């Protein structure tokens, strides 16, 4: 493997390279987020109960994507570090091993979701009709789970190689297909019958297969440097390192998703399907912050991975400080929008006044913590880049777990808004503690 087509991030202007890497990753994250938002937007015309059903499945698909992070993050770190050390053949072997794991894990996860869909959905304690609709929706969505796993892994490979624009372009293609398919399949036109809320699921499935097909076509016919078999006999040494690097991040995010599902269940207990709908839809809107930060954090991780192995840690630190400044400014704008324009934002997705009122409360409360959420996710990228994925996992798991007892405690005193305050308070604490921890580790690295 030559370095043709691979971006060297150890030289050149830091700001320009980081933005060039981060913006496509952020765009990819927004494209992935937009699938659920589009579904909620169109299904919103069918009422809050339909949104609750789709929203519950969206939370489960979020959980699925966190499992897929294992190979995606491992790909970004290992391939970025191999390229930084100029070990190109080793990078290709990591690419094949992570792809093999992604394929196997995706098929297994799809089988579990399809087989146990009703039992899984019953966790949210929704009414019988909503549970039945959500169960059917989940069975349809399970068909694209292997695509999600492999596409995420391939995105990680491209990110690690400094070519984040490729996943962005391919995911945008899928999003455009989804934008066209959703209203057609939900409401029907001419010879295509209306599928109702299930049309949104089929639109997503078709779009995900389009994305995966585009990835495979590009790897086979367009790439010079990144040519590797997707399915091989795994090598234990590579598998061990992949799991060591990817598992903490995957577990951290998976537990985060499980905890948020638990909070949605608590919200459902306090305020019925309106409570669950508020958290699931509000959480998707909050994805504006999450995906912006995750995009820059992922870019920072790839940037730092190359520079760290090239012994340019001070260059990596400057990139971190620039990213934190960017996130601070953006976090302030998001906070102002959520706190003062929450009603206008939430009413884009649902028109029922009780639902809009609940959503406005949600955005106002979690809006306070948005800048801290951005600091947390940005710092995670810095930790990942230097190969220390455990500290962010410890902080995230600990304070996200705190949300459940805090939600019960505040919920008894304040009702469903106590659940929203539990989310906001824990985000603030994580956004303060994790950067402090990294500053301590950075001093150790520089010794």
Description:
With 447 residues, the protein is mainly α. The protein has 14 helices and no strands. The protein is globular. The model has no long low-confidence stretch (mean pLDDT 84).
Structure, briefly:
83% of the residues lie in helices and 0% in strands. The chain has 14 helices and no strands. The relative contact order is 0.13.
What does the average pLDDT come to?
Answer: 84
Rg estimate, integer Å: 21 Å
The helix/strand order is HHHHHHHHHHHHHH
Helix-strand category:
mainly alpha
Major sheet, described briefly? none
Q: What's the helical proportion of residues? A: over 70%
Unreliable sequence segments: none
Distance between the termini: 35 Å
How much of the polypeptide forms β-strand, as a percent range?
A: under 5%
Number of strands: 0
Shape: globular
Number of helical regions? 14
